[in-house]
Amino acid sequence: MGILYIVATPIGNLEDLSKRALRILSEVDLILCEDTRITQKLLTRYEIKTKTTSYHQHTEIKKIEEIIQLLSNGKNLALVSDAGTPGISDPGNRLIEQLNNWTIGQLTTIPIPGPSALTAAASISGFPMDKFVFLGFPPVKKKRKKFFEEAISSKYPTILYESPYRIIKTLEEIALLTERKIVVCRELTKKFETIYRGSAKDILAGLAKDEIRGEFVVVVGDK
User: Fold this and answer.
1) How far apart are CA 52 and CA 74, in angstroms?
2) CA 89 – CA 13 distance, rounded (Å)
3) Which of 215, 219, 220, 218 is nearest to 84 (CA)?
4) What's residue 8's pLDDT?
5) What is the CATH number of domain 117-220?
6) CB 150 within 8 A of CB 53
7) Regarding the domain with residue range 3-112, which homologous superfamily does it belong to in the CATH classification?
8) For residues 108-138, b (16+ Cβ closer than 10 Å) or e, as one string?
């Protein structure tokens, strides 16, 4: 049975790829990508010639069977997401679960740790992070109010992700519920990285002056 490596890749700055990750991506027989076009930019930057294939939340059973057959034949594979650590708010965790279930515990899974928007935001938040809650992306439509009430009710800092298309709506909903301090991180590790601090109302005012672009991480402070 081959080995499945779970490889963290940069969340923006391509220099954040570790030497170990670089070696593993160069040595494995195949790289499983959330989007091969995005991963190819990273591979081209480091002149990695390893073949790639796509996986996503709608990956067909036939494709998973092909992956299992490769592992059964002793092939070593690497799993990457579009950015950051696979399995954190992306379909990678489902694929890992399926592969482990189908191989009945015979599969060796090795993490290659590295960049994560979650830990990057936590590290600069200024809030006590010995305990925190991570809620991923808020629901797009239904149960949003319940989601934010849960986030605000926590006695620990709460971290969530948000897209540029809904960040204003999210901050408006948080502003209706609390005046607690929050930290909003935009474009982490990229050229236009920006960190906003204050209440949700304060940050809404700051965002009104800037172009809304890139992915966001929101950290709601503890009580």
Assistant:
1) 17
2) 20
3) 215
4) 97
5) 3.30.950.10
6) no
7) Tetrapyrrole methylase, N-terminal domain (3.40.1010.10)
8) eeeebebbbbbebbbeebebebeebbebeeb
State the Cα–Cα distance between residues 31 and 81, nearest whole angstrom.
Answer: 10
Per residue in 2-37, pLDDT (tens digit) is 999 999 999 999 999 999 999 999 999 999 998 999
E runs forming strands in 71-204: 77-80, 108-112, 133-136, 158-162, 182-186, 194-198
Q: Could you read off the pLDDT of 86-114 as tens digits, one per residue?
A: 988 877 778 888 888 888 778 899 999 99
Residue 207 has pLDDT above 70, yes or no: yes
Question: What is the spatial distance between Cα 82 and Cα 155, in angstroms, rounded to a whole number?
Answer: 32
Question: Are 4 and 109 within 8 A, CB to CB?
Answer: yes
Residue position matching structure tokens 């073949």: 51
Residue 197 tokens read as 């601090």
Give residue 136's pLDDT. 93
Single pTM value for the model: 0.90
How far apart are alpha carbons 218 and 161 in whole angstroms? 6
Structure tokens at 104: 């009945």
- Domain segments of the chain: what residues? 3-112, 117-220
If you search the block for the tokens 């599969």, which residue do you land on? 107
